[in-house]
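Hey all, quick one. A colleague (J.T.) asked me to put the uracil job into the tracker so the inputs and the structure tokens live in one place instead of scattered across chat threads. No bug as far as I know, just bookkeeping. Sequence used:
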Amino acid sequence: MAIEAFDVVDLIRTKRDRGILSTEQVNWLVDAYTRGYVADEQMSAMTMAIFLNGMERSEIRDLTLAMIASGETMKFDALSKRTTDKHSTGGVGDKITLPLAPLVASFGVAVPQLSGRGLGHTGGTLDKLESIPGWRADLSNEEFFDQLEIVGAVICAAGEGLAPADKKLYALRDITGTVEAIPLIASSIMSKKIAEGTAALVLDVKFGSGAFLKDIEQSRKLAETMVQLGKDAGVATTALLTNMNVPLGFAIGNANEVRESIEVLAGAGPADVVELTVALAREMLALAGQPDADVEAALQNGQAMDTWRAMISAQGGDPDAALPVARETHVVTAPRSGVLVRQEALPFGIAAWRLGAGRARKQDPVQHAAGIDLHAKPGDTVTAGQPLFTLSADEPERFARALEALEAAYEIGESGASVHDGGPLIVDRIS
Ligand code: URA
């Protein structure tokens, strides 16, 4: 048996006592954990020490590079187009990738969106798109590259080969209360994005009730850490810091989020979804050398919609097919007249999940027609008896648990009362 370069207990003690790991130690740790020499319980102690004591910038960079080195990396050198990608840290009603990828690709840029399925209250982009009849998430390498060259936009499942160390580590963090550590989140996200080989990357880092990190300063720190990691790896990276206190748009679910995305691509759609789509598109196109691209015009004149249709068709989907509709609905009405002063993202995300739009375990299916459609947003005047939101589910017995989650999620105040809508949508830009 080969002699190991380090003793993992020494490394755990180093992090426990606020010391700094060397490049060699981080490389060895990630490799030894991936091949099973370092046990889960040892790595759990290590991730908890990192959660509690943090990591230096050099350690975060080393951790990211070691996770990239644990698997394959992709290269887009053979493409005739520049590549630009986006990553969101996830939120409630966050369907932005759907209109964004075809919008940006419609300017002749390649957008390779390797996406995931949802777990918990935040939805997964692939789950949303799978509500389109015929559409498939799994593409061969050849199909992926051909579609990038011809259509420009691809949204598909990430292969198993990218950053396998992160997959193992993320699964461990998930069950040991160590997900919400900035060095671990930053290295996890950026190892996959850098391994994916994009030349440019725009990060949508969320804060607030429906986000991973609730606190804006923590989110800002995460954004700064990721932007730095991207730049260190030669990926042009910027981040927007965005508000996730209120659900994005009116639709929370899968099929209904696709419907809302198509409205945006048709030049309409909710103001907040359009604002964020346009802002992220501008950032992505600026990094790809097109700072003056008229993205609003591309939503109005059908250019982005044409690319959407081509993208869906290329992956077997029928862009004209009817989207699934739930068997049962339950409408919640305003108990009094006034102004909707609060609509909190997290409980709405949890309720949609309980209706069947999300999954509790990786292997569970999602119900594509399940979800919530909002009929009012914070600041809107409502009258007693007016529908506030509609719950949709295939199994009506799910309504009670969803309604339980929503009991304290919204509030109607006096007419003209100050509106606590969580503030502006885009709070800062980090580059
Ligand atoms: N998403 C990831 O890919 N990794 C994290 O650690 C958190 C969110």
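Adding what we noticed when we looked at it: The mean pLDDT is 94. Residues 170, 179, 184-185, 188-189 surround uracil (CB under 6 Å).
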